[in-house]
Design goal:
Layout: H1 5-8, E1 11-15, H2 19-31, E2 35-39, H3 42-49, E3 56-60, H4 68-75, E4 83-88, H5 92-100, E5 105-109, H6 113-124, E6 137-140, E7 143-146, E8 151-154, E9 157-159, H7 163-175, E10 180-181, H8 182-190, H9 200-214, E11 219-224, E12 228-233
Parallel strand pairs: 1-2, 1-3, 3-4, 4-5
Antiparallel strand pairs: 6-7, 7-8, 8-9, 10-12, 11-12
Helix pairs in contact: 3-4, 5-9, 7-8, 7-9
Length: about 240
Amino acid sequence: MSMTPDIQASRVLLVDDDGAANEMLREYLETEGFFVSVAETGAEGLAAALSGAYEAVVLDVMLPQMNGIEVLRRLRLESQIPVIMLTAKGDNVDKVVGLELGADDYVAKPYFPRELVARLRAVLRRHPAAAAGHPATLSLGTLEAETESRRAHVNGKALRLTTSEFNILVMLLRSRDRVSTKEELSLKVLGRARSAYDRSIDAHVSNLRQKLHAAGCEAEIETVRGLGYRLTEAVA
């Protein structure tokens, strides 16, 4: 199986208290070229995720003592490492809360390991260098995004964005006056087609909008009803 070197060497932290399932998933992920470590409690998983030793975290919502939602909340105070949440099938509350707290994606249990691998690869590929023909730095007013270093600033002050939020920002900056549809954003940012009731992109955009506003950004994310989003400069 052909895999790009950066994904092949990716170190993944699995945080789940199901020992038997963890072992099977670890073996599957390792055959797919990932290096996998396991943490079975929320506290252990949080400490490991903050260690800087991993490129991505697969985080179960149902954990003893400290659940996955709380782990994610604390993790996002200090780190923007990509996180995929494992949620109960049909539990839309966990999905929405996880996305609002900064999760990059989610997979509902029970799931096929192949689906999780696809989601992991999609998340890990969302670190592209500046594409040919595109400038390395994109800006609108006091807002800047550096595509190679993957850093964003407002008035020179760094924005702490998740992987998905940064990629949405770059897409909106590149589109400028053109509306970026939810379907485009889902395909390019989440790596999957958008279903009729999928609110993932809306949650990520809401988070990004709040962070821009809190930073005093002059640019605003405009909602174009029935279509998608567009980045505009606020009118004084």
